[in-house]
Structures are given as structure tokens and as C-alpha cells.
Amino acid sequence: MLPQAIDFRAEADALHALLATLSEADWARPTLFKAWTVNDIVQHLHAGDLMAAASVAGEDPFRQMRAEIQAARDSGLTRVEETRQRLGNPTGRRLLDLWYATMAALCDRLSAMPPDARLKWAGPDMGVRMFTTARQMETWAHGQAVYDLMGVSRVPTSRLRNIAEIGVRTFGWTFVNRQQDLPGPAPHVRLTAPSGEKWAWNDPSLDNCVTGSALEFCQVVTQTRNVADTGLRVTGAPAQAWMAIAQCFAGPPENPPPPGARRVSAG
After folding, report:
1. Which whole number is the average pLDDT over 120-127?
2. What span, in angstroms and rounded, lies between the C-alpha atoms of 237 and 258?
3. pLDDT at residue 266 greater than cutoff 80
4. How far apart are the C-alpha atoms of 249 and 210, rounded to whole Å?
5. Which residues, including other chains, have CB under 8 Å from residue 69's CB and lie 6 or more apart?
6. Is the predicted pLDDT of residue 265 greater than 70, yes or no?
7. How many CB atoms lie under 10 A from the CB of residue 26?
8. What's the start-to-end Cα distance of the chain, in Å?
9. How far apart are alpha carbons 82 and 35 in whole angstroms?
10. ∠ at Cα 128 (177, 248), nearest 5°?
11. To the nearest 5 percent, what fractions of the chain are helix, strand and coil?
């Protein structure tokens, strides 16, 4: 199996294990992520995996799905409302089973693709490896809201390397997506992995760099935490501009949570 698909599935397995412990009442509770309920979050992940499967199926199925989604939103539906309507609003245990089965099938289909394949998405096209990592990132990031809601500290793993990679690679995207000029060269990023290993990207620099915990870097680039609520050391104007609005996921520009808004767990 594609190594990135193995990590994607492992990420989903970890979230599945937590979701399987929830009561029906828990599924209806609002989280700190835009007050989305657990049902809303898992429906969003399921919808994302279905869109990814459409992209794997070809450009035409993907474009058709995108057009249908856009038409529904243009009619006045919010993202959550559109997703509920399109999926038939599955909830709780039924939703858990649907999401997990779709995710597993998607991993198999991604693994069967040629290694040089490229896939359409809401942002720039991606190679199959980065595309698969993006699905892992989305699962990890949205899963954080469930861990926070339930007061569970998630144990970080080496799978964070994939999310840090996509975070570093989207330095330019963060600004292009906002129609802003790049503030300077890509910062040097040096992170401490959960194992204690050091991970580094871009040319070494003492004047333009981000250093610290790989976990906290991943939380910032996925906008599950504000950089002010982490111990990351951010040096230099380009690095500071980036970390203030970092966004490693596709779609329109989103702002990170305000400082303190989601400072509820170390994991």
C-alpha cells in the first residue's frame, strides 16, 4: 500500500477508536470548531473523502460533484447544511460506519494509482502522495475538535511528519490564496518530532525561521490552535506573517482561531 495511505488510514483508525466510545448525545454536542457538532465534523470528513473518490474516478466526476456543491451553496445553503442535505444527514453510529468504509475504500484506490498520477482538488492539483497526505491532514485536523470536546489528550506520532511537510509546502499558497504578495523567502523550519528527532526544511537561517514542537507547528498550519497559544519560536517578518495566517488546506482563506479560543489541551 502507498506509505501515505497507510498513514492516512492509521490516522482515521485513531479517530475511529475515539468516536466509537461516544454516546448518541455526544455526537450532537457542539465543538470549539465553529460550533460544529461531532456529527457535522464527521459528515465533513465523509464528504471530503467522497469528493476525493470522485477525483480518483476522473476529472469529469470531480467537476460534476464540485458544480453540484457550488449550486447548492449558491442557493443559500451553508457548508454544513449542504453537506447534511447531500449525504442524507446520517448521524452517530451509522455515520461512523459510512465514513470509515468510504475512507478504507479510498485508501485502496489511491494505493492502486500510478505513483506519478496527479489529481484535481479545490486548490491546486496534487500528486497522489500529497493528495493522500492532504486527506490524512484533514482527518487529523478536524479530529482535534473531537479530542478537545471529550477532554482526551491525543498522543502525537511520527505521522505528523506528513502534516508538517504539507504545512511547509503551502507557505506560498497561504499568501496566494489571499491574493497577497509573498512577504519574503520561505522560512527555515526546524521541528522536534515526538521521538525527539529533528525535522528540517528550507535553507538554514537565524533571521527567518520557525522552530519548536512538530505537534504545535501542525496545529498552527491546520488552524486548530493560534500560534500565540504554542511555544513555537517565530523569528523574522516573513515567518511571523506566515504563522499569523498559515493555512495548509484548500478552499477560501480562513483565519486561525483567536488566541486562547482553543487552548484546552496539550494534545
Report:
1. 88
2. 20
3. no
4. 19
5. 82, 86
6. no
7. 16
8. 29
9. 16
10. 30
11. 55, 10, 35
Q: Report DSSP state, residue 227.
A: G
Q: Are 212 and 185 in contact (CB under 8 A)?
A: no
Supply the DSSP string of the chain, one letter for each residue. Answer: --HHHHHHHHHHHHHHHHHTT--HHHHTSB-TTTT-BHHHHHHHHHHHHHHHHHHHH-HHHHHHHHHHHHHHHHTT--HHHHHHHHHT---HHHHHHHHHHHHHHHHHHHHTS-TT-EE--SSS-EEHHHHHHHHHHHHHHHHHHHHHHHTPPPPP-TTHHHHHHHHHHTHHHHHHTTT----SSPPEEEEE-TTS-EEEESS--SSSEEEEEHHHHHHHHTTSS-GGGS--EEESHHHHHHHHH---SSSS--PPPPTTTT-----
Residue 143 has pLDDT above 50, yes or no: yes
Name every residue whose Cβ is closer than 8 Å to that of residue 24 and which is 6 or more positions away in sequence: 91, 92, 93
Q: All domains of the chain, ordered by start, with CATH?
A: 3-150 (1.20.120.450), 160-245 (3.30.1050)
Sign (positive or negative) of CA dihedral 173, 177, 178, 182: positive
Which helix (H) or strand (E) segment is 144 a member of? helix 128-150
Q: How is residue 28 written as a grid cell?
A: 450532537
Count of positions (residues) in the chain:
267
List residues bridging with 188 in a β-sheet: 209
C-alpha cell recorded at residue 120:
484535481
